[in-house]
Design a protein that fits this description.
Helix content is 27%, strand content 14%. It is an alpha+beta fold. It has a domain at 42-115: SepF-like protein (Translation Initiation Factor IF3, 2-Layer Sandwich), CATH 3.30.110.150. It is globular.
Length: 133
């Protein structure tokens, strides 16, 4: 609840609803009430956010706080605000021990703890699906 108070104090959120998560993601139960490894279904969703101002950082933070991977597309922002969003995202991943991956110019993926990206070809070798000879 401290993050919410800080966001209200900074003017990034209003004080009306403490669980103001866009897209009806929050179902009223904390994800830590379930068994280990089970959340409120949030682990099966990926949020995409295309912020226009720095105030949209609250949306990114709320999704990430509920362990939802977030794709941030910064193409609609000017460079100084885009840098502020990236700095905010780096603070999020540092505080929650997540990770950040640059997908392309001005597009980033924030991953909560326990998520990963498979890069390269992995264990595929020359005997893949198309090599049926």
């Amino acid at each position: 609840m401290g993050l919410r108070r800080a966001a209200v104090w900074l003017g990034l959120a209003d004080n009306s609803d403490p669980y103001d998560v866009p897209g009806e993601l929050y179902d009223g139960e904390d994800s830590q009430d379930g068994a280990e490894g089970e959340g409120s279904g949030a682990g099966q969703q990926i949020a995409t956010v295309r912020p226009e101002t720095f105030q949209d950082a609250v949306t990114i933070g709320e999704y990430f706080r509920h362990d939802v991977p977030v794709i941030i597309n910064l193409h609609d922002m000017d460079l100084p605000d885009a840098k502020r969003i990236v700095d905010f995202a780096c603070g999020l991943i540092f505080g929650r021990r997540g990770s950040i991956e640059r997908i392309s110019a001005r597009v980033y993926l924030l991953l909560p703890p326990g998520y990963g990206i498979i890069t390269g070809q992995g264990s595929l070798n020359g005997e893949g699906f198309f090599n049926q000879a």
